[in-house]
Amino acid sequence: MGDIKLIVCDLDGTLLNSKKKISSYTRKVLMKTKELGIHICFASGRDEQMMAVYSKCIGGCSYMLSNNGALVRDTTGNILYEAALEKPDIQQILAFLTQRQMVFMMYTAQTMYFSNDSEKLKKRITNYEKLSEELGYPMKLAAESITADDINRNFDDVAKIVVYEDEEMQMNGFLDFAKNLENVHCESTGYGLQGAFHKSVSKRTALFKIMGHLGVDKSQVCVFGDYDNDLSMFECADRRIAMGNSIGCLKEAASDITLSNDEDGVAVYLEKELDL
């Protein structure tokens, strides 16, 4: 792997273990990888606010690809790429969700908006803040509750709207509705979650932007993933590493399979291939 210039890691189910942490062993391996001059990119369906603590854990990564590719920042905080939902689509989606009292969260580059003072989503926010304290990098998330009265507000830079719905009929109803929005597409943004994005959004598109910024090609990129929203990234790299806990289609598309996320699969692979 002496020619590798960029390592791209999904977070949940890939770099993070079941406790949502980067193990001390994996952290050490990533730090050694950075010392070799190799760039690290975290690529996640998460919003960048909920990725930041993991970047801090390794002393900063070169690129943050968040919201399944709707937003990319470099290590200095500059936005390299952004594909936001269009305002008419935002209003239609918010109207649909609020009328049906569905639980959702909307993400902009600055703020997270959650529906109707949802206890479920408030707990999600506080759990992340507690985790950040536990990891030694305390963070306060910029989050705000919104109601049906807020749907006509002028929201800017909306990267995604995520629906948290356990009722299958409700979720299917939302997906059928979203199909009629010409500039919107929906895809998984985590286990059991559906996100609405601008139609141009994918991890593949965003990763190619990063590769262009670095001036690297597929032979110099190594990608790790576990879920179907990582599949498009595999088109960007010759080294496509599926985790042992990956879904079947990702393993089929992989050039190699490593151990699971709870067995430090990313670190084990890198330590061996880079001869650390």
What's the SSE blueprint?
Blueprint: E1 6-9, H1 11-15, H2 24-35, E2 39-43, H3 52-57, E3 63-66, E4 71-74, E5 79-82, H4 87-99, E6 103-108, E7 112-115, H5 119-134, E8 143-146, E9 158-164, H6 168-178, E10 184-188, E11 194-198, H7 203-214, E12 221-225, E13 239-242, H8 248-253, E14 256-257, H9 265-273
Parallel strand pairs: 1-2, 1-12, 2-3, 7-8, 12-13, 13-14
Antiparallel strand pairs: 3-4, 4-5, 6-7, 6-9, 9-11, 10-11
Helix pairs in contact: 2-9
- Annotated CATH homologous superfamily of the largest domain: HAD superfamily/HAD-like
Q: Whole-Å distance between the termini? A: 11 Å
Globally, the shape reads: globular
CATH fold call of the largest domain: Rossmann fold
Number of helices, where a helix is a run of at least 4 consecutive DSSP H or I residues:
9
- Classified by CATH, the class of the largest domain is Alpha Beta
Question: From N to C, what is the helix and strand string?
Answer: EHHEHEEEHEEHEEHEEHEEHEH
InterPro entries: Cof (IPR000150), HAD-like_sf (IPR036412), HAD-SF_hydro_IIB (IPR006379), HAD_sf (IPR023214)
Keywords: Hydrolase
Protein name: Putative phosphatase YwpJ
EC number: 3.1.3.-
